[in-house]
Design a protein that fits this description.
Length: 83
């Protein structure tokens, strides 16, 4: 049986970039506004860390795709120049 933390992590992993970014913005806003207990603040911070990791994975994936496309384009250009 999966724990509540594992379920939340699985849901977080399934978020799209925009969803994770928007939720992260809300978490930061709530932390900056203050007025939360230490326990609430720690939970928000932990959630923010998870969301930041999701965003980073999406951005790293996008960068890898761009790099691959640029390398493919450069290789095609080199092949055309050799002909």
């Amino acid at each position: 049986m999966t724990s509540e933390v594992e379920q939340l992590t699985a849901v977080t992993e399934a978020l799209g970039y925009e969803q994770a970014r928007d939720e992260l913005i809300e978490v930061v806003r709530r932390l900056e506004a203050g007025g939360t207990t230490l326990e609430e603040s720690l939970a928000l911070w932990e959630r923010g860390e998870e969301l930041a990791k999701v965003c980073r994975r999406w951005l790293d994936g996008a960068r890898a795709r761009l790099d691959a496309a640029l390398a493919e384009e450069a290789e095609a250009d080199d092949d055309d120049a050799d002909r």
